[in-house]
Design a protein that fits this description.
The chain contains 11 helices and 8 strands. It has 384 residues and is α+β, with helices and mostly antiparallel strands. It folds into 3 domains: 98 residues, Butyryl-Coa Dehydrogenase, subunit A, domain 1 (Orthogonal Bundle); 97 residues, Beta Barrel (Butyryl-CoA Dehydrogenase, subunit A, domain 2); 158 residues, Butyryl-CoA Dehydrogenase, subunit A, domain 3 (Up-down Bundle), CATH 1.20.140.10. The strands form 2 sheets. It has a 4-stranded mixed beta sheet, covered by helices on one side. The protein has a 4-stranded antiparallel beta sheet with strand order 2-3-7-6, with no helix packed on it. The radius of gyration is 21 Å and the shape is globular.
């Protein structure tokens, strides 16, 4: 497999086999707040939840470009579906790469189907060392995909490291779902079926071999080369894919409306020069953002494989992510504005792209300060 390009598995073909099911079951999941059982079953069968798991553990071993393209395509059909698949892949792939104890890794990933892990990476848990491991407690947020997960990955300050000025040393913990209490408080506008609810862990006993550093001490034990970039670039690229998938869907939806819609005394929307100009602009902007995201994914795969990772590359992931959200948001607002009441009506999806994008832009990956940081770093590099 050439990680610099793509894995050999036809992930897009697998998504294509699910399109009708996603279109049918996606809105049902939005109404109930989580993906439907028939859809989850097929996503598991197609191994889409575990495409980023290292191949050594039976996963898909997918590269960054695979992740970008498949997440965007799933989001295009239903943002909640794509978000679920992406979130579970990030945590499950991360755990598969970082578990140091080989026997523990083989044991956890020996299940059929493979484990599905939801995650929250902020170190808000409390871990107390005990014989053989830790006692872990805490309340955690944004457990995207937890409704169809078998484990969760959470974090706490590492109790084995003396506190010092600056961010704490962070230890990750794998916790089976039987030790997790879901709090069911995901009641939102947009991204409704992600089930990104809070969850609680109370005095769970976690074996030491089910823990691993989640900070700069993290050393991938197996898996794709891009694991050496850390989890942050993977998450940023995934969030870029979400924004791009929603924006593409909005532009396609307004295209279909524009050839039919005309207000009294006006030509069809598609025949109005103002629409034509703005559509061409937003279509070009989204294509440019997609190209930037793709270039960044390929650069990440190549740099990691060649052990040539630079600080600038990390900032390029931030740049691609925030730019995709900015361009995508503008495109969705444009499409919705020209849609009239057609944008409001169900079962059309144009109105829902507005809600989904409004939800996606609230993620910390879209922090505009990241773009400012990237600008400073890139200028320093190019000024040399």
């Amino acid at each position: 497999m050439n990680e610099a390009t793509s894995s050999k598995i036809d992930w897009m073909g697998r998504i294509g086999a699910l399109r009708e099911l996603i279109d049918r079951e996606g809105p049902v999941g939005e109404a109930q707040g989580t993906l439907t059982a028939p859809l989850v079953e097929r996503l598991i069968e197609q191994e889409l939840f575990t495409m980023q798991v290292p191949a050594e553990l039976g996963g898909g071993g997918a590269g960054l470009l695979d992740m970008l393209e498949t997440a965007e395509e799933l989001v295009y059909h239903n943002a909640s579906v794509g978000w679920n698949v992406l979130a579970i892949n990030v945590a499950t792939g991360n755990a598969g790469a970082l578990i140091a104890d080989e026997d523990a890794a083989r044991r956890i990933f020996s299940s059929d189907p493979l484990p599905r892990i939801a995650g929250y990476g902020a170190p808000v848990g409390i871990a107390t060392p005990v014989e053989g491991g830790y006692r872990l407690s805490g309340r955690f947020q944004f457990g995207s995909g937890i409704a169809q997960s078998t484990w969760v990955e959470v974090a706490a300050p590492d109790p084995n490291v003396e506190p010092a000025p600056g961010p704490p040393a962070v230890l990750g913990f794998l916790v089976p779902m039987e030790d997790v209490t879901r709090l069911g408080n995901w009641d939102v506008y947009g991204l409704e079926a992600t089930a990104s609810e809070d969850f609680e862990i109370v005095d769970a006993l976690i074996p030491a071999e089910h823990t691993y550093p989640l900070d700069g001490r993290a050393v991938p034990q197996r898996g794709q080369s891009y694991r050496h970039l850390g989890i942050r670039p993977v998450s940023l690229l995934g969030n870029a894919a979400v924004a791009l998938g929603i924006a593409r869907r909005a532009l396609d939806e307004i295209s279909r409306l524009a050839v039919r819609k005309a207000r009294p005394g006006r030509p069809r929307v598609v025949d109005q020069q103002l629409f034509q100009h703005d559509f061409a602009y937003h279509d070009a902007a989204v294509r440019a953002a997609r190209a930037l995201a793709r270039d960044t994914a390929v650069a990440g795969d190549v740099a990691a494989a060649q052990e040539a990772v630079t600080p600038e590359l990390g900032h390029r992931f931030s740049q691609a992510c925030v730019y995709a959200h900015s361009v995508g948001s503008d495109a969705v607002r444009f499409a919705y504005g020209w849609g009239g009441t057609g944008a409001l009506r169900r079962p059309g999806r144009l109105g829902h792209t507005l809600l989904d994008m409004a939800g996606a832009t609230q993620h910390q990956a879209n922090d505009p300060n990241l773009l400012a940081d990237a600008g400073a770093a890139i200028v320093e590099t190019q000024a040399v």
